[in-house]
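Entry for the shared binder. Reason: the reviewer on the internal report wants the predicted structure included alongside the sequence.
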Amino acid sequence: MGLHVTWSQKVSTRLSDLAVCIGIVEDVHVERSNEKILEIRRKLEAVVVDEHRIETLKDNPTIRAYRDFYWKLGVDPTKTRPAGEALLRRVLRGRGIPSICTVVDAYNLASLSTMIPISGFDKDVLSPPLQVRFADANETFTGIGMKTTRSLNDETLVLTDQERILCIYPYRDSDQAKITPTTENVVLIAYGAPGISIPQLQETMRTTVRYIEKVSERGTSNIAVSSPLEKRR
């Protein structure tokens, strides 16, 4: 597929049960909105309202896995919500999810459906290979919507390419690699946590790719899984 994720030795030792699923969709067409994304949104939001209650979200096994993982990373999940939970809460409170563009909305809707955090990046601005590692002390990061640069500590788990931090794993994406109206090729990452199976990640990515291909009306895709355990096989 031409893109893979490596794992630092520190991550492999401390978090060997992590995995990510990578998807690439090429030749996409990004729009502000269209009827296809609105249709997916309407159907999913109706399902969410029917199947979930805000009072019991914390007991869902998938949400519980990410909440526990956040605590392990030193992140309070009651203040910084796991992506799937945050989206579910918005819908259940009648707010809906933010509308950015068709491709971004598509992977956000996939995250809403599966409760798995997903990132999307402009493939043509990346400098592979990608790596999951812990940040260096005082390494800086600028996330989408951030007005100032954030200084990280050496316990912050990140996804990087050879030039920049792409994401604070698994909840804040870089502004420099975000999907824009001119994006033609997309890299997608579904982030695992302890207790999240590889089949869950694969199904999440298949859903994400399907949504993007539908709203783009074109695109060719590939999917692969990466885990620290690969080093030991």
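Summary line for the report: The longest helix spans residues 198-216.
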